[in-house]
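Q: My labmate handed me this sequence with no annotations at all. I'd like to see what the chain might look like in three dimensions before we decide whether it's worth expressing. Could you predict it?
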Amino acid sequence: MWSRWPTRKRVLINMIDGRAFDAILYAKRGPLLELRDVQLLEPGSDNPVPIDGAVVVERPRVAFIQVRT
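A: Here is what I predict for the chain of 69 residues:
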C-alpha cells in the first residue's frame, strides 16, 4: 500500500514561490517536511545549487510534490 507521503524517496518539491527542491523527503513532522541531500532549483537557472545539511519547509508553502524514479 502506498503511503500518502513518499518519505525516504527522492522527490521534486515545487514551492508556491516558483523555486523547487530536488531532495530526499526524509520525514514529515506535523506541518513541516524535512529534506536531505538537497539541491535548490531557481526559476530561470540551469544550474542546481547544492545545500549542505537538512532543509525544513512548511507544507502550506508547497505547491506540489513529484516522486522521482
